[in-house]
Amino acid sequence: MSFWETSATFLAVVTPLVAVPLTALTFYLRSIREHQLTWQGEFVRRCDGVESLAKELRRAFGEFERDCVTKEEWLRECMHARRTLERLTEVTAGLDATVKTLTLGASVGRPTGAGDVRDVEGTSICVPREDDR
To answer: 5 is in which domain, residue-wise?
Structure first.
């Protein structure tokens, strides 16, 4: 028998002994890979769900913090509102004084023609005629 005949016989006997376990190993590794991909997809889906729930929880907690502020924050907001109201009162008082001044200046003056332009404390006004009032 020659070397090639002996090698062919050896390979004919060994091939089924190697091919069957190798095929089983290939299918086993493929099933592990598919299981990993399925698990990874499920894990990503769950992580996305947890992330969206965390965002919703963060938003709800922010609303809760806004509803339940500390005493210092409440006092700070009250003082800010008070300052705003004081400024609004000052502006309203200034407007009231300006309107009174303008009304007093208009009632003292004598209108001529369609209207008279007078300067009351640096403000130009147009006084209507007597019959237009």
So the answer is: 1-68
Q: Kindly state whether residues 73 and 50 are assigned to the same domain.
A: no
Domain boundary among 68, 98, 120: 68
**How far apart, in Å, are the Cα atoms of 44 and each of 17, 31, 38, 47, 51?**
41, 20, 10, 5, 10
What global pTM score does this model have?
Answer: 0.37
Rounded Cα distance, 13 and 7, in Å: 10
Phi, psi of 122 (to 5 degrees): 85, 5
Per-residue pLDDT tens over the stretch 27-70: 999 999 999 999 999 999 999 999 999 999 888 887 776 666 67
Asked if 117 contacts 124 with a C-beta cutoff of 8 angstroms, the reply is: yes
Count other Cβ atoms within 10 Å, centred on residue 127. Answer: 21
Please state, in angstroms and rounded to a whole number, the distance separating the CA atoms of residues 50 and 1. 71
Whether residues 58 and 107 fall in one domain: no
Residues in the chain, overall count: 133
